[in-house]
Amino acid sequence: QIAAQPQVGLADVAERIRAALVTGNYFRLLGVNPAVGRLITPEDDTPSAPRVVVPTWGLFQSRFAGDPSLIGKTLILNETPHAVIGVLPRGVGILNRDAIVTVGAEVSAPRFARGNHGFMGIGRLKPGTGLEQALTDLQRVS
């Protein structure tokens, strides 16, 4: 499980970073394309899928000197290996976190219960749906 400030490192060097856990359709929903490699997809978002990470552009530059050979290497997050599959483009942060984005954690009802305020949901309005209607629908289901 990823802590709020996991340790990340290659080889013997580790440092604390801020991390966000996202689902496989997160980047597609936002229309984000990778700067290098690929981004997380729904195929990565299953309990049996290998653990993967996508550093933000800032971390890619500051910690890894913008080296494109980082793709395919393994980063260790809280003692768990994660394959680096891509890099976010410059200026794209995730939930106010300019660090690592990771996925592949098992989704379970207790962990993602409505009362767990450590999670944030985002979405897009369906074409033709106004904000008022969306708020009414959200209030109904919550």
Structure description:
Helices cover 17% and strands 23% of the residues. It is built from three helices and nine strands, in the order E-E-E-H-E-E-H-E-E-E-E-H. A hairpin with a 2-residue loop joins strand 1 (7-10) and strand 2. The longest helix is centred in the last third of the chain and has 11 residues, at 131-141. It is elongated. The two termini are 27 Å apart. The model is unreliable at 1-7 (pLDDT under 50).
Tag the structure with descriptive keywords.
142 residues; alpha+beta; 17% helix
Rg of Cα set = 16 Å
Share of helix, binned: 10-25%
Shape: elongated
Distance between the termini: 27 Å
How is the largest sheet built, in terms of strand order? 2-1-6-7-5-9-3
